[in-house]
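Course exercise 7: structure representation. Students receive a sequence record and must write out the corresponding structure in C-alpha cell form. The form below is the worked example handed out in class, using NADPH:quinone reductase related Zn-dependent oxidoreductase (339 residues). Read each field label carefully; the graders check that inputs and outputs are placed in the correct fields and that the protein name is recorded exactly as given.

STUDENT ID: A-19
EXERCISE PROTEIN: NADPH:quinone reductase related Zn-dependent oxidoreductase
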Amino acid sequence: MKAIQLRETDGIESLQYEDVPRPEPRQDEYLVRVHAVGINPLDWLICRGMLPHLIDSDLPWIPGWDVSGVIESVGTNATAFTRGDTVYGMSRLPDGGGTFAEYTTMSGDEITDKPDTLSHSEAAAVPMGGQTAFHALYEAAKLDADERVLVHAAAGGVGHMAVQFATNTGAHVIGTASGRNKTFLRKLGVDEFVNYRKERFENVLDDVDVVLDTIGGDVLKRSVDVVQPGGVVVTLPESPSQETVKRYQDEHDVTVRFFDVIRDSEPVTLRQVAAQINAGVVAPSVSDVYGFSEIQNALSRSANGHVRGKLVVTLMEMIDKRGFEHRANQNMQPTDDIH
Ligand SMILES: NC(=O)c1ccc[n+]([C@@H]2O[C@H](COP(=O)([O-])OP(=O)(O)OC[C@H]3O[C@@H](n4cnc5c(N)ncnc54)[C@H](OP(=O)(O)O)[C@@H]3O)[C@@H](O)[C@H]2O)c1
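STUDENT ANSWER:
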C-alpha cells in the first residue's frame, strides 16, 4: 500500500510517499481502508521532532491520528464492526499513529460509526479536535449552563468545536480570533467576539468562569487575570510548572489545569461527540481538502497557525487517479468526497 512515512524528525520535508506492507489487524483490531485524514498541529510538531515520546517505534514511521474510512477486514476477536461499515476515530496515543496510509489498523475503542450526515472528509475533521474540546470543557473545567467561558483561537480545530459544545450547554461564550473570523464565530454561537489583533482581551473582559487556552505562554498568564476567584483555566499547548499552578491558585484563587488528550482521552468521549453530531447540534467545519500527495502543503499551512476549522487530506484522489480506467471500465461511481 501507499503511505506517507517520516524518515527523520527534522521537519515536514522528511515525509516520504512510499510503498509499505499493508498492516494486519491483531485479534481485537480492524483493518480500516482510509478515506480521509484530519490534520492536527500534533502532526507537524512530531515531524519537527518536538514530541519524540509519541513515536513509539523506530523510523521510518507512519504518522497521523484522525481518520474516517471503511472496515476492510476484521480481527478474529473483534465483534463491534463488520466489513463495509463506515467508521471514524482517532488512533491511540501515544503508541498509535499510522493513518497517513491507504490502510491502518485500529481497535474498537478507537472508532465509532461515521454519522451518515457527514462525508468522510468532514468526519475525519472531528476526532482529536472534538474530543479535546469536549474533555477540556466538561472533564477538566466542569462547564455549566450560564457560566461565562472564554475560548481562545475559537476559530481553530479545537476552538470551533468548543464554541458549539459550550453554546449547546447554555454558557455565555466569548471567542478570540482575528477579524476575518468574526462572522464565522457568530454563526457558531459566540456571544462576544474579541479581535486579538485589535484589542487585548484582558482590557475588555472580566468575571470569566472558564478559559480554554489554546495558545499558552503570555495568553495563559493574561487569561488568569480575567477569571473570577474559583474559576478554571484549561490550557492545551504545554504543561505549566507546579510552581506556576500553585502561584495562580494562591494569588488569584484560579485553578490552572493542563489537558492532555494523550493521557486523558477516553473512548467514550468520541461517542459523546458523535451523539451531538448525530443530533445535528454540532458540525465540523472543513476549510480545505488536500490530496494525499499534497500532505506536506496541508501540514505547512497548519503550522502557519491560521486555519479556520480543519484541514483534511483525502486518499480518494490517489485511488481515483490510479483506478480511473479500471472504474470507468467497470462503470463504478467515484467515492471521492471533496467539497
Ligand atoms: N494538550 C492536548 O491534548 C492538545 C490536543 C489538541 C490540540 N492541542 C494544542 O492546542 C492548540 C490549538 O490546537 P488547534 O488544533 O485548535 O489549532 P489550530 O486549528 O491550528 O488553530 C488555528 C487557529 O488559531 C487562531 N489563532 C492563532 N493565533 C491566535 C491568537 N493569538 N489568538 C487567538 N486565536 C489565534 C487562528 O485564528 P486567526 O486566523 O483568526 O488568527 C486559527 O483559526 C495547539 O497548540 C495544539 O497543539 C493540545
